[in-house]
Specification:
34% of the residues lie in helices and 22% in strands. The protein has eleven helices and 17 strands. Helix 8 packs parallel to helix 9 and helix 9 packs parallel to helix 11 (312-329). The structure holds iron/sulfur cluster.
Amino acid sequence: MQFKPKRVFFEEKALDYELGQNLYNYFKNDQVELKIIKSHNRISGIPGKTPQQSYNEAKRTLVVGVRKGDNFQTCKPSAHFQLPLVTSCPGKCEYCYLQTTLGKKPYIRVYVNVEEILQRAEEYIQERKPEITIFEGAATSDPIPVEYLTGSLARTINFFGQQELGLFRFVTKFTDVDSLLNLKHQGKTTFRFSINSSYVINNFEHGTPALIDRLEAAAKVAHAGYPLGFIIGPILEYSNWEEEYSKMLNSLHNYLTDIPKKITFELITHRFTSRAKNNILSLFPESKLPLNEEERQLKYGQFGYTKYLYPKDKLAQMQVFFNDQLKKYFPQADIAYFV
Ligand code: SF4
């Protein structure tokens, strides 16, 4: 499932970098629309008369740019900083938070000044020593679909392999992992896969690999010696959710039987904001996502957003279920959190 953009925009300055030049040469002879643009803050030229058209066209648009600005965003609680390599992703998950944060045209952007970004990461590590500094590589993206074009994750994993006090982590739903298996990661990069039941993948995670392919990729990553984790989310309640999630964990167990290492799970139940609900319904008017506020409890978030969570008793039921299932299939596993 390789990402093939329909149009590629190059920021003028990106062509001053080797990666920018290489990408330009790569796409020059391809059947894609190429454009050199000035500022990376104003991307025009992505067509679309309706929200759906704009969204679909943006998801096939690649912007090759230079990351400006010196500072990284913080990334609490799972890491100290975001590591900005890629923004957005060609997947079309109905519930994706990027629909809310990236606006109506969530085009994919890659940064070519990877060495400068890593140099800044090194400065952060130095500033915080002797503390360990953790960087998250998927805070605003899924970085795997563009890796075959940029090689940026591989470069980053090698970089962290040489850091004593820096750790790297990212999460993906994609499976194109072969180029990352033989790197000198030294256990400094945690490779996480986002998985879900077949019902959720088939109904809501459009344009992403099937569960079985993700499990196969996870097994390869585990054999390559990476610390491994899984995000299960969004956890949804539907008619046979327990049976399906149990099946999913059983399959995962079968794929990882010969892996003695510790695995970490992050468990995230489904929640939404009013803004997210409006965005989802404008893009997916027929969505089967459970978005009825009356069936939820309200939670006031730290940035003034009100979130709709499952009610307390439902959350408790889900937590008990996952605790029991994980104990059964992965007795050594760590549950990092359940939210
Ligand atoms: Fe969003 Fe991840 Fe789905 Fe991409 S794969 S659309 S980043 S949820």
